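User: Please run a holo structure prediction.
Assistant: Happy to. Please share the sequence and the ligand.
User: Here you go; the ligand is nicotinamide-adenine-dinucleotide.
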Amino acid sequence: MKLAILRETADGERRVAATPETARKFIALGAEVAIEAGAGIDASIADSDYEAAGAKVGSRADALGGADAVLAVRGPDPAGLGGAKAGALIVGALNPFGERERVQAYADAGLEALAMEFMPRITRAQSMDILSSQSNLAGYKAVLDAAAEYGRAFPMMMTAAGTIAAARVFVMGVGVAGLQAIATARRLGAVVSATDVRAATREQIESLGAKAVFVETVAGIEGEGAGGYATEMSDDYKKAQAELVSSHIAKQDVVITTALIPGRPAPRLISDAQLATMRTGSVIVDLAVEQGGNVEGAVPGETIERHGVRIVGHRNVPGRLAADASALYARNLFNFLSAFWDKEAGRVVLPDDDEIVKGVRLSQGGKVVNERLIG
Ligand code: NAD
């Protein structure tokens, strides 16, 4: 089975879908690994590192020629995959809802597209979960990005010249990214509070030494929520949440927002009027900016200032830690494909009735087959 790893073409994408470590492991299984020259350069991996691991490095056409699978970070342009075998697997973060037409194009080209972000959140698939591995790094980086924009220090400092107060950090949305943001802000010495709509997060917030700030008057989502995910909240809840945010946010120096609802635009959590109540010099990092944003006025790819508050809207935050993000992403891909490695056939075999396969498979036999897409 020949696996092709191409240089990512999306603007600003620094990650790569295989590392020398995962290349070596795939080769040990019996696969052939072909890398497009320069594929790892932005993630601090030289072509020679892949060669030392036993992979072949060559042109894009060399890598694609006769490939049984293409491993990618972002979904590659279907028109640029000529040379891959009929029915080849395309494995990556394919953004199925956002790039629905491209999914159709994979199907039309006879390719079998597998979207890693559709990985079911079951115990068996935890080590294959790219959303978790990438969100964890994004939560960490969001706090560092906030600290870099903030014109004050995070920890309390008692110096001969006087005392500096600790920064107050508020984390909105306590999934994987939010939990890591709380932990990182605490390590930097901030006074941290956090909120979510899922009741189970209260204990998680408190166990990290942060203060849980929850809507008390209207019921939120019980426990973890279905599959660990939030849904759109009622108008009553949204109103109560807006009041809570209004009373809390004016006392905060830094806000990190991470709230997402699968398959929908990100919920709006902070209005322009609310940010006008914050202290001049405060910083907001909106990790949901590419999904529509939690903060009114946030702009993808830009840092803007409104009412003296900086709103940071970096795109692709995991890609800002390209080496570690690639290492974890590549392991997620290896853990997935190796779990379905058929020793006798010497290749990946994906059974139709497997929960993981049903979750991630978007197209097969010329058709879009995923239930979440065809509804
Ligand atoms: P996510 O990225 O979908 O959303 C981030 C957070 O935003 C969530 O906690 C969500 O509840 C919250 N949110 C949504 N709307 C909100 C609103 N209006 N106000 C405030 N907060 C709002 O979530 P995620 O990071 O993917 O994690 C979701 C859960 O899944 C976590 O509990 C995580 O531990 C769990 N999980 C389980 C597995 C597994 O079992 N394999 C793997 C990964 C994550």
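The chain is about 30% helix and 20% strand.
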